[in-house]
Amino acid sequence: MAAVAAPWGRQREEARALGRAVRLLERLEEHFRDPRLASSPPSMRDLLPRTAQLLREVAHARRAADGGGPEGPGGARDFLVVYLNNLEAKSRQVAALLAPQGRRSANDELFREGSGLRRQLAKLALIFRYMHAELSALFPGGKYCGHTYQLAKAPAHSFWRGHCGARCVLTWTEFETILCTCHPVESGSTGLALRSTINLTCSGHVSIFEFDIFTRLFQPWPTLLKNWQLLAVNHPGYVAFLTYDEVQARLQACRDKPGSYIFRPSCTHLGQWAIGFVNSDGSILQTISLNKPLFQTLLDGQKEGFFLYPDGKNHNPDLTELCQMEPHQRIHVSEEQLKLYWAMDSTFELCKICTERDKDVKIKPCGHLLCGSCLATWQHFESQTCPFCRGEIKGQEAVSIHQFQGKPEEATAAAEYLRSSSDQEDGEEELGQVASSAPPRLNVSPAKGRLKMKLLKENTPLAAPVGPVIAAQAW
């Protein structure tokens, strides 16, 4: 009887905790109706109701499941305990900033851009942004999927599942021990710095979502911590927990020094880097690099004269030692597959969107192949979803196609096979992918310039590229 009562008691306590969290967010929401607290993303006025609604969906799904589903260690229940405790703590920190008891001057300071209290509020807003994204990723529509969550980088996914199994969260101490089996971590200040970088929600735990973001930011996997050391710990251009507006303010002092730049993890394009820099005309621009690691973007930008002075300093660190990147993944095309393409008067390696260039990029995690130019154009004008299957794009990987060398001697037979088979997208059979619909045709031409980048203003729609080398938009 006690064994039956214990799970029921935990479910009831979880439901109460979810209800308390929703009510706490609703009370906070009232404070952010003041227009003086409006700011560029992340906006607490937007995040609070969205997080509250998602928690309601989680509560509804948990009641409907009635205790069913994966509930092992590090599963949905353990995650929610950590998440709700952290949410309550962060909400109380926000409340303390909003209503300092009997201190009118402190209250006035909160509404002044650049003040200490406003900076604290901006950091908490970033944490709330990460917490909302984490909950959305692990409980889409309120339903738990942490046990099936797919990390964007295949080596990182294999590492997590191989060492952590179906768990979606574990303590920092345990995670650090596991990480050391593959990437040794120094104790002391280095370990603390790594924790502050990975643990975006500042909960004292590490979720599979946070690890996914970290491994996307500091790719490639073989040199993961070396990349982190050189780009985050030692690089003067790295800034953490800064918003779009704060980057603008920081670079104001460097407007007379074109080539000054800083970079930060984007809070709207998670897993990607936002780079703010001073243009040759003194305007301050921001870009997100596509299809390459950050160090490669910085090196390319240095050659083009865009990224020369990190945070206005004259010394620009040498990142060339990081250029020993992972080799391109080799996609092997069998003789049977080639016959199918020959019968259609096509080739496997030809990009099926532009039909002009060869495929050289694999979308992660779905695995569809296309050329880098079409992918960049698609992401710029459409969305962060695959043009074939509409799955979320969490990353890209350079690939090279290696096909069977032979003649289309059996092309006619293959054509007969095609006519007798069901109509399927000629997507990426090598990877076992069948697209749900053909992608729209894009009017694209071969990319020009060495530095392929996309500029954004994080609270406005993206603008079309304005130049052959770099697309620019002023703040």
TrEMBL record:
Residues 421-446 are annotated as: Disordered. GO terms for cellular component: membrane raft; plasma membrane. The keyword Protease does not apply. It is an enzyme of class 2 (transferase). It comes from the Eukaryota. The keyword Calcium applies. It holds the Pfam family Cbl_N3. It catalyses: S-ubiquitinyl-[E2 ubiquitin-conjugating enzyme]-L-cysteine + [acceptor protein]-L-lysine = [E2 ubiquitin-conjugating enzyme]-L-cysteine + N(6)-ubiquitinyl-[acceptor protein]-L-lysine. GO terms for molecular function: calcium ion binding; epidermal growth factor receptor binding; phosphotyrosine residue binding; receptor tyrosine kinase binding; SH3 domain binding; ubiquitin protein ligase activity; zinc ion binding. One of its GO terms (biological process) is protein stabilization. Keywords: Calcium, Metal-binding, Phosphoprotein, Repeat, SH3-binding, Transferase, Ubl conjugation, Ubl conjugation pathway, Zinc, Zinc-finger. Its EC number is 2.3.2.27. InterPro entries: Adaptor_Cbl (IPR024162), Adaptor_Cbl_EF_hand-like (IPR014741), Adaptor_Cbl_N_dom_sf (IPR036537), Adaptor_Cbl_N_hlx (IPR003153), Adaptor_Cbl_SH2-like (IPR014742), Cbl_PTB (IPR024159), EF-hand-dom_pair (IPR011992), SH2_dom_sf (IPR036860). Residues 351-390 form the RING-type domain. Pathway: Protein modification; protein ubiquitination. Residues 7-321 form the Cbl-PTB domain. PANTHER family: CBL (PTHR23007), E3 UBIQUITIN-PROTEIN LIGASE CBL-C (PTHR23007:SF12). E3 ubiquitin-protein ligase which accepts ubiquitin from specific E2 ubiquitin-conjugating enzymes, and transfers it to substrates, generally promoting their degradation by the proteasome. The N-terminus is composed of the phosphotyrosine binding (PTB) domain, a short linker region and the RING-type zinc finger. The PTB domain, which is also called TKB (tyrosine kinase binding) domain, is composed of three different subdomains: a four-helix bundle (4H), a calcium-binding EF hand and a divergent SH2 domain. This is E3 ubiquitin-protein ligase CBL. The lineage of its organism: Eukaryota, Metazoa, Chordata, Craniata, Vertebrata.
